Amino acid sequence: MYDLVIRNGKVVDGSGAPAYNADVAVKGNRIVKIGKITEAARSEVDAAGKVVTPGFIDPHTHFDAQILWDGCAKPALSHGVTTIVSGNCSLSLAPLKAKHRMKLVGMFNQIEEMPLKAFKEGVVWDWETFTDYITRIRKGLAINVAPLVGHSVIRLWVMNDAAMERTATDAEIVEMQGVLRECLDAGAVGLSTSYVDMDERLQPVPSRYADAREVDALASVLGEYGRVLQIVPEFYDADLTIARLDQLAELSLKYNIPTTFSPLFVNADNVDAVARVMKRVDEQFDRGARVWPQVQTRPIDISFSFAVPSLLFMRMPTWYRIIRFGTPAEIMAAFSDPDNRPKLVQEASALGSLWPTLIFRHAATETNQKYIGQTLGEIAKARGTTAVDAMIDLSLEEKLDAHFLSSGMGHNDDKAVGDLLSHPRVHIGASDGGAHILSFSTYGDTGYLFSHFVRDLGSMSLEAAVKKITSDTAAIWGIPQRGLLQEGYVADIAVFDAATIERGEEKFVNDVPGDGHRYVRDSHGVDTVIVGGGIAWTAKDGYKDACGEVLPGADVKKKVAA
Description:
single chain, alpha/beta, nine-stranded mixed beta sheet, 18 helices, 33% helix, globular
């Protein structure tokens, strides 16, 4: 008897081949038969009228902390995501000495906009090594995790405070290589690094102090295991991005490793720059290098309030200094100061066309509920003031708990984005799941891919889109026996309605440790999500127990050094 049979579905197997009608049988955690199945099963899923695909793989997330209090990585699992890659952008929660914990938390707070209170109340620090962290996250895990190890934390482990001050000595580089090997042996899927990020002091993160010989030495270790190198390049400058791309290509060729960089956005003012980057990607692939650009599906929408720092204000130093380092009382005092306020308004004028378009989306007081959904331009007109002044006034009236939305800031040219996503050498990812929780909802990128680019625009076929986020991702990241519906493969499966799948509207929820809030999106059209042969989520009953794993795991190590 089978443990599970999914009946009457249209199978899109992840290979890119045309869909076909079939049943799928599961025994234990494996797919054991695909075809017409008459035998009974302990559990059945009726997939009539629905598509049956491999579970989706999200290659750029920051669920490192969330999975410590939420093994489902909610709501990612409900969107059909069965595997997440954590530890991106040079930041992972291990290896990490106890004395460096708050330093790392500060970096997560600054770079990924994750609240300090969530770490304080949601994380029990009972590990230091990567091996112990893996042991810790396995408890209650309902989703698969393929964890990267962060370059910044490896530097901290070896160099302590000097990691934030200088390049490494030869001896320190050798020690870092040893630490990286230990992490890869424990199950790390690769190494992440960053060339742009800043810490809580607005100083470069440790990985940015590394020189080329250090990166080369660490890449040589990745070559021993065939594992991935992920970087954040200077994405705001095409020339610098191409230079990093070339650097990755040389490392990929030298050590036979896959590499990936993110993000790559296409905006109205950088279409030519993206074309140049992609031209170089093609050239490097033609040489035999593997340099995968990661591209997100969704437009850039940013929400903010002045209760927490927002990266939206990074280009306005007076504003950012106040909201990054000031207490709520100090921020309100600065906004109220008749001498300081004109300076703020003047500095904001550099983005003068932005402010009237912002949407007022959340207020705590009853008085300002009437403005919800209006733009700052409309509110300013009603109040007889300017959009910037209206934003400041509303923030003061709401004691900084006024939320504003900048919608469609970029990556919203459907034709350009659709063409980019369809490119055979573009890696769909960069969701940032688990991060920026008050800036934008990072959930539903897969639903948006199917609803907007497959169903609405026809930018790619259903089969091609499934392949992009299943078998392609598994192949790039070296995740074995996943990404395809194939006999013998692990049963990570999504069942959804291709006619209705989409992301829900952003909603404001209170489910973060420390009485914290975030923006999330519900899934629509997803019926059942299966992880490791177990039903992990259904639209009818919600989250269930399932067996998530840490991938790829030491058992599939590809070490080739003698």
